[in-house]
Amino acid sequence: MKPSVGAAAAVALWGPAAVVSASVVSMDVMRTSEMHRGLSKRSTFVETLANNITGGAYYIDVTVGTPGTPARMVLDTGSSDAWIVSHTADLCTSRSLQVIHGDTCATTYDSAKSSSYSLQAADGFSIRYLDGSRAKGDYIKEDFTIGGTTIRSMQMGLAKETVRGTGILGVGFSTHVAAPEQYPNIMDELVRQGLIPAKVYSLWLNDRRSPSGRILFGGVDTQKFIGTLGVLPLIPDVSTGSITSFTVRMSSMSIEFSNKTVSEVPARNASGVPALLDSGTTLSYLPASMAEKVFRLTSAYTDTRPAGTGLTFVDCKLLDSERGLNMIFSFRSPGMNGAAEETTTIRVPAHEMVLDVIRGELEDLVPQDMPFPPRNTCLLGIQSTSGFASVASGLAESDWTLLGDTFLRSAYVVYGIDHRQVGLAQANLNATESKVVELSNSTATGLPRLTGLASQAPGTGTDGKPPATGTDAASKPNGAVRAARGSGGDMFAVLAVSGLFASLGGAFMAF
């Protein structure tokens, strides 16, 4: 059946997974809070430690093989390969490795128990992520069931060597897979096998204290966002000159304080900075010049000790003294039919950027000479890309932005691979209703500029009512945002982070 962009069906999305229609696959995206991975004084990159502290992993539950074996996978928009963990993986069978890496195997797969398994390339799978984690093993083909929909004979990695006990589901461009030769990834297979009409999906993570969000393959839920869905063109990667990642141009950023004064955080380049939207990364990263301005405005403190964390912290009192603080991210896009440029803005409230997660043994990891005591220390949801400069060949100034979960929880994002576009709007937090629009594979017209709710649904937002943002016409302030301390479950979570920024040319992906 050919889907119609204009045809919308109201549906209730309950339970862990549901097929919304013949052409839209929907399922829960769950947030882990397990006390699982160990901590180190200094990781190769600070994101590893940040992920452990904040509990930022978002995962989905799938089944692999015939009969289906349950598998838990971290959802990652910043990478392209799917891989699962073998029951014979070194981490799963070695207690010493579990101690070293501070992880165990959650769910594993045994090819001998599946009638649909086929070996594609023995020892052909090898991937490494920017945080230093890696996985190696075979490429296999296997039946893969997601949201009640089965993809037949999908290629994926089967990790026999890994430092993480949870696989990753990369939903990026297949041009960026780890294999020497490109192969169809999950998005390609969903379309090729007629399960969705176009390589497009939408992601709603919900707020930080919510246990789950929702992902829709092939559709958009207009009950999950506020205002008009801004449509942003993807931009070419810096090193390749091609579009192989969900990178858009962020035109500006500002901070609005409780008294409604606004301080601009200008980009070094007047045209803005490239920004990767990456659900596989917990925090958000700004170019050093922008990050330093944010740090000054929030009286933040960066741990620069040789054996320190490398992270930037703030006084938790901001959650009380600046309850109405919002960090405002702006993105410009061409207007429709030759109209003037449009600006899409996403407002991120204080409770999403001031993370009260430093407790217990974590207090020993932070500097003791900060201007605020360790017990009052919060992790700032924005960090500097300067920590990546030493490895970002060709980008010594680190003049790029990575927008991870601290940003994405406040946004509703439509990832249009076929359309080479991203749809962006303010998230309608804790929504309980759905109205799903199937998306066509038409690349001539691009993603539709759909309209969501006029404002935050009454009684659904846990931290006040973010304004309808979308495009300029819907960008009126709407009062203060009430911030509150996070729960203890925010600490110590498993996160298989990609941290991949494709504009770096994939230098940290495939080995």
UniProtKB/TrEMBL annotation:
The chain crosses the membrane at residues 491-510. It comes from the Eukaryota. InterPro entries: Aspartic_peptidase_A1 (IPR001461), Aspartic_peptidase_AS (IPR001969), PEPTIDASE_A1 (IPR033121), Peptidase_aspartic_dom_sf (IPR021109), SAP-like (IPR033876). Keywords: Aspartyl protease, Hydrolase, Membrane, Protease, Signal, Transmembrane, Transmembrane helix. The active site is at D76, D278. It holds the Pfam family Asp. Residues 1-22 form the signal peptide. The keyword Ribonucleoprotein does not apply. GO terms for biological process: proteolysis. Residues 58-425 form the Peptidase A1 domain. Residues 447-480 are annotated as: Disordered. GO terms for molecular function: aspartic-type endopeptidase activity. Belongs to the peptidase A1 family. This is Peptidase A1 domain-containing protein.
